[in-house]
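Justification of resources, computational component.

The compute hours requested in this renewal are based largely on the per-chain cost of generating structure records like the one below. Each record pairs the submitted sequence with a full structure-token output. That output is archived, and it is also reused by downstream analysis tasks.
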Amino acid sequence: MIKGLTIRRKQSRTDQSLPILLLLPALIVLLVVQFFPAFYTIWLSLQERFPTGWQFVGLDNYRLLVNTSLFKESIGHTIVFLVGYIVLTLSLGFVLASILNTRLRLSGFYLALLFIPWTLADILVGMVFRLLVYPDYGILSGILGNPALFPPKGLSVLTAARPAPLFGSFPFPPAPAMVYLILASSWRALPFITLLLLASLQTISQEIIESARIDGANTWGIARHITIPLIFPTLVVALFNLILTGVNSVGMVFSLTAGGPGTATFVMSYLLYNLGWERLRFGQAAALAVMMALVNWALIGGTMRVTRVDERTA
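The structure output for this chain reads:
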């Protein structure tokens, strides 16, 4: 009797500890990959490198960073880039997904072609788009350099100065290089967004669409009152993805514009690279990384609040 009770207790302890033991390898990896770099970045943002070693400086790195004009300018550039990138990618993705959802002939072939940009690295895409408009031998340089199309002397995308801002110091309208960066980034992200929306569109019953058409609804009415509300959770997921990649990606900026001309495409992610690896100001770079993490959470939280995902998907 006592022996059987002891065996049951051992089995009960094993049953309780087994889930923890199974999760332990993943928790260790998560600790090493996620939590340690995060806490180290916070620690580094409060330090400064001197000849004698690292010294605690408190919030000085944050204060110095916030008071620089380049940081303030990078915020405006990031906002302009995000708005253009998100609107263009979501709009084109929804249109392409709607077209592919009509089950065209050779739709599988079109999907394969569409997926090609997603397989390419940001650095490679930026280099290719840079070669397209490079003066003298770029494929598009002959068109862009035509004074008849772009008076008075043609358009050099990578070196053209930014137009005079309309709203104080806010960088709008953007420089041609920023517009080109938005186009290149959207082309890179378009396949994933299109496939995500296409998968969601294919879950909508065609009977609902046909009933709406019989009742006299046009294409815009169907999209507004049926399609978009039904795929709204997927649109939010796509929006989150675009926000995070738009704020944090640096490869496209690095290989396409390198922040230029001047500082016309100095978004926050490129400023982080510039501070850390070109100027070797690791404390300020870490402070900017912490601030960008807070920006990511604020953007996601704001998007969740505006779209009210929880209420619409309940």
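The chain has a mean pLDDT of 85. The longest strand covers residues 47-50.
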